[in-house]
Write a structure and sequence with these properties.
Bound molecules: 6-O-phosphono-beta-D-fructofuranose
Number of helices: 14
Shape: globular
Number of strands: 13
Strand content: 15-25%
Strand order of the largest sheet: 3-2-1-6-7-12-13
Structural class: alpha/beta
CATH architecture of the largest domain: 3-Layer(aba) Sandwich
């Protein structure tokens, strides 16, 4: 009996998603004679029975297209917004999976999607996931697709900012995506020749950053490029955040519901204020260095457009490896990139873990050795 595959893309979109859908679909149909349908807009499509048949025609011409032909959303099966109410819709999703006679649900996503897929696995569904995100922060895989493309875009942006920063003798603070992990800022910072790189893993001291910029100015370079991850924090903010997280853990352990809600609300406000961080840093640097400073926020530019060749290759080979595993009846795994190959990793090892930049990572040593200031 031919197997039935359901596929969905969830979380923030990422270049390479269509290449992965195509990789799974083409090999499933062509190599194994399986049937493939794609659900629209992440887990919501599975909930609302919105899907398309992924046949040869649907899979044709999508390799080079950015985004996802299926659409995506950040909906979680156990916390779906239904009107203005949040509801656990897991049961309906499980029922729909069975109504479609699916043998497996393939979920393409980042950290959140890995957790949601794992939850569905615990409800008895066969799931296989693929790691995608421009943030490169999915655990247990060498790399995620989308990262290489975003790295190229952020690097080109830093390249371009150099000439204007140089001409005006300015500091340019360029904000790169990455709330929890600094892979993109660090990678693009090194590749683009940023003078300062600030990432969430290393809280920064603004005075040390300013001093490194002044040092460059004294050496005759009155411009500097500061690449900063969205989630990078000053020492003071990092300490405050750490404190709040500790309090939250304690309150949760003691089941103090009101206190938990209160701390969560404070944390949310704090995180929202974080978006102002880059602008604040730029102003502080102006004051401390007396050099003019400007801010460039790269934002969603980093997620848009056609995937790089490396991402197309990675997404395609993970897609075909995914189909091979499904054919062999291997479920409950993420198809991880390992060197030039792929390996199944049990979902319970992936879900809830995040791959941040380790403090002894070679890229950090490289950055330091070429004189990049990391804010510490
Ligand atoms: O895709 C991951 C990510 O790009 C993060 O780096 C970023 O903080 C977030 O998505 C932005 O998400 P949204 O598009 O939902 O605003």
């Amino acid at each position: 009996m031919a197997k039935h595959i359901g596929i969905l893309t969830a979380g923030g979109d990422s270049p390479g998603l269509n290449a992965a859908i195509r990789g799974v679909g083409k090999s499933a149909i062509g190599e194994y004679g399986m049937n493939v349908i794609g659900f629209r807009d992440g887990f919501r499509g599975l909930l609302e029975n919105r899907f398309i048949r992924l046949n040869g025609a649907a899979l044709s011409g999508i390799l080079t297209i950015g985004g996802t032909i299926l659409g995506t959303s950040r909906d979680k099966p156990h916390r779906m917004m239904m009107g203005d109410q949040e509801m656990d819709m897991t049961n309906v999703i499980v029922e729909n999976y069975h109504n479609h006679n699916l043998d497996v649900l393939v979920c393409l996503g980042g950290g959140g999607t890995q957790k949601n897929a794992y939850r569905l696995m615990k409800e008895g569904l066969n799931v296989v996931t693929l790691p995608k995100t421009i943030d490169n922060d999915v655990a247990c895989t060498d790399v995620t697709f989308g990262f290489d493309t975003a790295l190229g875009i952020a690097t080109e942006a830093i390249d371009r900012l150099h000439s204007t920063a140089h001409s005006h003798h300015r500091i340019i603070v360029v904000e790169v995506m990455g709330h929890n992990a600094g892979w993109l800022a660090l990678g693009a910072g090194i590749a683009g020749g940023a003078d300062v790189v600030l990432i969430p893993e290393i809280p920064y001291d603004v005075e040390k950053v300013a001093e490194s910029i002044l040092e460059r100015a004294r050496g005759g370079k009155a411009f500097s490029i500061v690449a900063i991850s969205e989630g990078a924090m000053s020492n003071e903010d990092a300490a405050m955040m750490h404190d709040m997280e500790k309090q939250l853990k304690k309150a949760k352990k003691k089941d103090k519901t009101e206190e938990v809600a209160q701390i969560e609300a404070t944390l949310k406000v704090f995180e929202e204020q974080q978006t102002q961080n880059t602008v604040h840093l730029s102003r502080q640097l102006e004051k401390l260095t007396r050099l003019e400073s400007r801010v460039t926020i790269l934002g969603h530019l980093q997620r848009g457009g056609t995937p790089s060749a490396a991402d197309r290759l990675l997404a395609t080979r993970l897609g075909t490896a995914c189909t091979d595993l499904i054919n062999a009846g291997v479920y409950g795994v993420m198809v991880a990139a390992r060197g030039e190959g792929a390996e199944p990793v049990p979902l319970d090892e992936v879900a809830g873990n995040r791959k941040i930049v380790p403090l002894d990572h070679p890229w950090l040593n490289t950055a330091r050795e070429i004189g990049v200031n990391l804010g510490d």
